[in-house]
Queue: 3 jobs
Job 1
Amino acid sequence: MSLHFQIDLAFDIQNKETDVLVDGLIKLTRNENLGTEQKKLIPNIFKFVSSTEMSNSFHGRSIFYINNHYRYTKDKVDVSKWTFHFRQVFNDDLFYEEGYPLIAWLATISETEGFIGYIKEEFSESPKLIYFRDGIVKLVEKKKDDITFKLSDFDLSQTIWKD
């Protein structure tokens, strides 16, 4: 039996990344073919990803998304960022051969630092959290005690819808 791994991550792409790279990622989300230069920049694993097959995830639907979003105003200058969100399931052979290098490559184009997502093995109880910092990937597995709570632990009068 083959295991499956789900990757789910979201981050902003660095401003320094070329239009060729961003245009290539956009093409992939539209299931369009990459140009020669784009194939040199973008990992091979993306040819196994479809933006139309949305039911292959075991924790939510698949996502393959890139878009330019207004993010914030800094020093009275409007800023927009290319946001990348990716949730896909890969079989273990493809994941071990190309999944880890994909995550390492994504760290090199990410502007976002800190927690950006997770890897979840199909039968694992908890995910490995993914952190990016300075182009380096850090995977963190659960090591602390659980925090447990239930709905009755809260004052629900604070959660009632108010018109």
Job 2
Amino acid sequence: MRRHGALMRAQETDTEYERFCEFNGGMWRGKCRSVLVDALRKEASRDPQCDGRRYTSCVKASKAGVDEALSWDDEDNETVVSLKLPPGAVTGDFDGSFSAEHAAHNLVSASAPTFAAEAGLAVADDERVRVVASYDGGGSLARVAYLDEVRIGANARVNGAAVADVGDVFALAGDWKGDATIRKPGRGAVNVLKQDLELHTDGDRLFRALTVYDAAGDAVQTLESFGDVATASLDADFEFVVFRDVGCCLVLSRGAYVLAPLSIERDKAFYIEAGVFITEPEADLPGGQQLPISIRGAVPDENGDVEPDFSESKRFLSRSVRLYSPDRTLASVTTSYHQLYNS
């Protein structure tokens, strides 16, 4: 979460990776929400093996790299996932949010041939949501997992915003206006621009339009797509939307989502997007008035005076997009933070 306090601390930190270590290191308690995806049939179902399980994660993050041990509560504290990443494999943001690519977090067996893209999004000073899209050895999307975590010893949802209760496509609807930072591997931030995300639905289809602006504030590109909302099974606690025109699917579960290709094809660029919807506390509560607004172009009022256009909404959206080249090498990571303007 892009909190004012986090920004001030980040300005005192040498690198975004050091901020990643500062925020993410330590012991975390979490609960897994997991969805199995059948990419061929374009279907999704609850994952009975991982969904609903609680766990403890120990993260050691330093200049030498990241070492994580994750153990389920019902496995006698046996480490089921041991994740090791070099510093260069992690792309960090100034608030401690990050993204990475690895093969360990299929959450069942670290030895399985899996390509996994993870986004860890800070939603409060001591809370984070990790979103993991895992692909099997053939390049098909197999599992989407959401890891809701609270730092051990912290008071949850006291000093920051909380994940919004977004459980269906109707709750996504609106114009989300925000600012985005583009980072290149090994180069850090290379560009800051504005991005607007428009979402609308009739319950059967989801319309999505992403508009990108240049430095002057002029729209340079709008990417539109329509998705079909699939009928969920009786035990499902998620929404599954298939964008057939672009070969992607969106899996939404309790305020967090993944938008990812159903399959990764050879010699074809692709992206994997993760997002978390956040509700800021009221101003008189702890954590209130922490999140930045994204002011848009000035509009003249009835007297011809120019006033900036901004929203007073308490609803926000944090996004992370990993863009890959056709050979599966990471081309860029775009992080953006949006505020709801019109629902």
Job 3
Amino acid sequence: MTKPEDNIWKLYAEMFGLKPTPEEMDAFIDHYNSPHGVVTYSTDDKNRGVDSYFMSVHDNHNGRKHFHIDLGYGDSNQIHNNVTHLMLDNSWAKSFIDFIKEQRLKQI
């Protein structure tokens, strides 16, 4: 396994253990002002289904090796753009994990 791939799987495991909520994802998006290339919105992903949560690792992006974590959720209460999707590379995944941990510490 390459170093970038190894790193993304470690971050994925940590993120999986945190089980981030849609509200935490939204707070992250707001905090970073919807960073271009990281946040996308789409309409009803038939493969995932609305009102679902998804997290996976992908190693292809425009035909190049680009390891990243796909993380998001669907919301049937919205008619348009009802799927929020984060594409987190090593740097953004680390920022996301740190953000979630900080937010949870504030709640204690």
